[in-house]
Amino acid sequence: MLILTVSAIIRFKRRKAKKHDNAFDNMARGKCTIYDFPTLQEATGNFSEKHKLGEGGFGTVYKGNLPHGQEIAVKKLIEGSTGQGLDQIRNEVLLLAQLQHRNLVRLQGFCLHQNEMLLVYEYIKNGSLDNFLFVDSSRRNTLNWDEQYNIILGIAKGIMYLHEDSSVRIIHRDLKANNILLNDAMDPKIADFGLARLQIGGHTQTKTSRVVGTYGYMAPEYAIHGNVSPKIDIFSFGVLALEIVTKRRNCSFDDCDTDTVNLLTDVWTCWTKGAISEMIDQSLEGHSRIQALRCIHIGLLCVQSDPDDRPDIPSIIFMLNRNDMELQTPAQPAFFFGEDSNSASPPCQQGIYVYNRSEVICEEITKNGLTITDPYPR
Ligand SMILES: Nc1ncnc2c1ncn2[C@@H]1O[C@H](COP(=O)(O)OP(=O)(O)OP(=O)(O)O)[C@@H](O)[C@H]1O
Questions:
Q1: Count of domains for the chain
Q2: Interface pTM, i.e. ipTM
Q3: What angle do CA 224, 228, 230 make, to 5 degrees?
Q4: Which domain holds residue 275?
Q5: Most exposed of 30, 31, 201, 292 (fewest Cβ within 10 Å)?
Q6: Which residues neighbour 336 within 8 Å (Cβ) at sequence distance 6 or greater?
Q7: Catalytic residues, which ones?
Q8: Digit-coded pLDDT (tens) for 217-254
Q9: Is the pLDDT of residue 50 over 90?
Q10: How is 248-288 classified by DSSP, letter by letter?
C-alpha cells in the first residue's frame, strides 16, 4: 500500500515536471523561432565572406536577409566553444530568448544543424560602440554628449534588466564596448548576454575556474580568483562609462606598453589632483558638463577594488537620473598603475560630493552669498 502511494507520488511528480517542461517550451517557442539550416544558408549567401560581420570568441557572425526582407545576424558558434551538450544548449538558448528588453539585442531563434549551434539575433544597424569611440575616426566625432549620456543610461538599464528584472539573473561577465551595439536611433543594445552561461555550463556559480571575459574590463576578484557576482558587471560598466565620457580605451594588460598610462590611472590621477574636468570635452557647458563629470564620478565608484564598495545597478540608475543626489567619494580603482595616491588630497574634504541641478542654480546660490565648492574645478 505504502509502495503504491510512493509510486503514485513519483508518477504525479513526473507528470507535473513534464507539464512544466512543455509549458516552458511553449512559452519560449512563442518568442523563439527554430530556423532550418537551408533558410540560414540562403539568408547569409551560404555563410560567405561578403556576409561576414566579424569574428569573436564564440564564433563568426554573418549578416542575413530573410525572404520577407528582415535583416538578421547569425552567430555560428565554434564547435566545442560551449561547455555543454546540444540539449542543454538548446534549453539555455530557449531561456535566453525569453529575455527581452529595449537595451538588449534580441535573440530571435536558433538552428541546430548536425553538431553546430547557430544563434539568430536581430540585426543592429550601426554596429558596435567601439567603432564610435575609438576605432573609426570618421565616426568618433559624430557622437554628441546627449548620445553619449543616453548610451551610458541605456547600458545601465540593460544591466538592470539582466541583474534584477528578468526571470533569471544573468551576469554578463563580458561587458565591453564591442558588446554594445547601436541601433539607428543610437540606442545601445547589450549583445552576447548569457553566452558565458553557455560556455561554462549554465547555472549561477559564485566561483568559476573558467574565466570568460576581457582584460581591461574584468573586475580583479573575477580575473584573479574567478569570483562571480553582479559586481563584476558593475566594474565593467564603470570602465565603459569612463571610456564613453572620455572616448578613450582603457587598454588591457596585454596591449598596454609599460610607458602608457591606462585610462583608470589617468582618470584617478586627475581626480586626486582635483583636475577631473580635464578628462571631459572642454566645450561642454552647464547641465551637460555636470552630467559628464557625474558620469566620471559614478564610473570611478564602479571600478573600486572592493566589490562591496561598488554600487549596485539600481543605485547607479538612481545616481544617473538625479543630478542633485550626493555621491560617495570613490576609493582608488583596481588596476591603478601609478604612484600611491593615498597621500594626495582629494578634491573635496567632506568626503561626499554634492552636485547642483545645473550651473544656473549654482550661480543663484552664489548670488545669495553662499559659498559653493565646485567639486570639479576647471
Ligand atoms: N546583432 C548584431 N547586429 C549587427 N552586428 C553584429 C551583431 N552581433 C554581432 N555583430 C557584429 O559582429 C562582429 C563579431 O561579433 P562577436 O560578438 O562575435 O565578436 P566581438 O564582440 O568582437 O568579440 P567577443 O566574442 O570577444 O565578444 C562584431 O563586429 C559585431 O559588431
A1: 2
A2: 0.97
A3: 125
A4: 130-366
A5: 30
A6: 264, 265, 268
A7: 174
A8: 999 898 888 889 999 999 999 999 999 999 999 875 55
A9: yes
A10: -----TTT--TTSPPHHHHHHHHHHHT-GGGGS-TT--HHH
CA dihedral 319, 323, 326, 332 (to 10 degrees): 60
Choice among 43-52, 91-100, 228-237, 348-357 with the minimum mean pLDDT: 348-357
* Last residue in a domain, options 122, 153, 183: 122
Residue of 156, 376, 183, 187 whose CA lies nearest to 284:
376
Per-position DSSP letters for 128-147, written without gaps between them: BHHIIIII-HHHHTT--HHH
- C-alpha cell of residue 32: 523563439
Say how many CA atoms lie within 13 Å of 153 toward its Cβ.
Answer: 16
Q: Is the CB of 336 under 6 A from ligand 1?
A: no
pLDDT tens-digit readout, 102-151: 999 999 999 988 888 899 999 999 999 999 998 777 776 789 999 999 99
Atom nearest to 174 CA in ligand 1:
27
Listed ranges 179-188, 212-221, 247-256, 344-353; the one with the highest mean pLDDT: 179-188
Position in ligand 1 atom list of the atom nearest CA 60: 18
Residues 6 or more apart whose CB falls under 8 angstroms from that of 236 comprise 172, 174, 175, 176, 213, 217, 218, 219
Distance from the alpha carbon of residue 74 to the mean position of ligand 1, in angstroms? 10
Regarding whether 141 and 114 lie in a shared domain, the answer is no
Checking if the pLDDT of 21 tops 80, the result is no
Are 303 and 339 in a shared domain? yes
The predicted model scores a pTM of 0.81
Q: Is residue 371 part of a domain?
A: no
First to last CA, the chain: 84
